[in-house]
Amino acid sequence: MNGHKQKKRRGGPQILAFWSEEHSLTALLILLIVEVFIVVPATRAGHALVMIGLIVFSFLLLAGLLAMARHRIFQVVSGVFVICSIAVRMARSVFGVPGLLPWDALLSMLSVVGMIIVVLWQVYREGPVTGHRVRGAVAAYLLIAILFAYSYTFIAYLVPGAFHLPAWAEAGSGRGETFFYFSMVALTTTGFGDITAIHPLARSLVTLENFIGQLYPAILIARLVTLEIETRRLGKGQTHHDKERE
Q1: How many whole angstroms separate alpha carbon 75 and alpha carbon 101?
Q2: How many domains does the chain have?
Q3: Which of 44, 62, 114, 163 has its CA 20 to 30 A from that of 27?
């Protein structure tokens, strides 16, 4: 009886264990690439692609839930949060409820913050530097861009005229498509100048994103190099210790 329970416990959280492994970072990066570079730009084509975007969005949320949930209470709270986020996104995108846009952006921001914390914890924790960690660092970079995109969408709804948008960008601002593009431009400090922040809060966020875009690669490289040096030092120390024991 006890053996059966132990087996059930070991087999039950297999999905959670998957997202605690480093290869989950690669899977998350693939989902993010599909979301940012394929689904979001294509949402203008019609509602079918909106549904695809909803599915990808749900997978991203569930990925964050599975990575974060470790305790029963947190699993329940996170589950309710994910269900609410998906329901709001579906109601806004499929049924055309524009008043849900700020709630959609706010819930999405909170979801992305949770995923950023999980991904960075896996990237920066002790251990050897692997390709999965490098891909996880890229995933965190994209998540930062997504976080600011939702932040800009939220501000643009609450403060009309917070951004100066050209004619081509007006149509995509309600769906967040415009601000996904603007966020990537701001994070990489490309600065095309076609979209500009006018409201002080919007300018502050853009400045913050520029700042993060410059510091993140430097901090990331420094951390990964430190981890690699530490791993090699420990490996040599263990080898020397093993030789002494022989």
Answers
A1: 26
A2: 1
A3: 44
